[in-house]
Design a protein that fits this description.
transcription regulation; metal ion binding; DNA-bd_dom_put_sf; mainly alpha; Multidrug-efflux Transporter Regulator, Chain: A, Domain 2
Length: 154
């Protein structure tokens, strides 16, 4: 399918939520969700319909890429909030944000590798059996730390 060329007169034209959804490949409901979370912004026209600046497409693209690699929405919001005047990220901004997220991703990769390596014997919380986990969790001592896989936490 050929991309429709944008008439130069339309560059300043604001987009409807449907246009943003179609152009970004994100469902309208997801756009509304992003807006309630403060990731993107719109304003209402005289007919009380949402209108988005064209720059929202870049913000949505950044959100999609960050989500795809596993960055939590709270981290995405914090990163976007760090931009002056809530503008869309530039290439330099993206490089800075990706360096920050790289550390988070490296930590998550380490957790996943530990889980993979322990998966066949114990998932790290002592839940399989006291007999099988005596060396890792004698007498279910990890229960004192509450629920979860404590041996996998850094």
């Amino acid at each position: 399918m050929a991309m429709k060329r944008i008439d130069p007169e339309d560059w300043g034209k604001e987009l409807t939520v449907g246009e943003v959804a179609r152009r970004s490949g994100v469902a309208v409901s997801a756009l509304h969700f992003y807006e309630t979370r403060g990731l993107i912004r719109s304003h209402r026209n005289r007919g009380n319909q949402r209108r988005y600046p064209r720059e929202v497409l870049r913000r949505v693209a950044v959100i999609k890429v960050a989500q795809r690699v596993g960055v939590p929405l709270a981290s995405i919001k914090a990163a976007l909030d760090s931009l002056p005047d809530g503008r869309s990220p530039t290439a330099a901004d993206w490089a800075r944000l990706s360096r920050i997220w790289r550390d988070e991703l490296d930590a998550r990769i380490g957790q996943l590798q530990r889980l993979r390596d322990q998966l066949d014997g114990c998932i790290g919380c002592g839940c399989l059996s006291i007999k099988a986990c005596r060396l890792r969790n004698p007498w279910d001592e990890l229960a004192e730390h509450g629920p979860g896989a404590h041996l996998l936490e850094p």
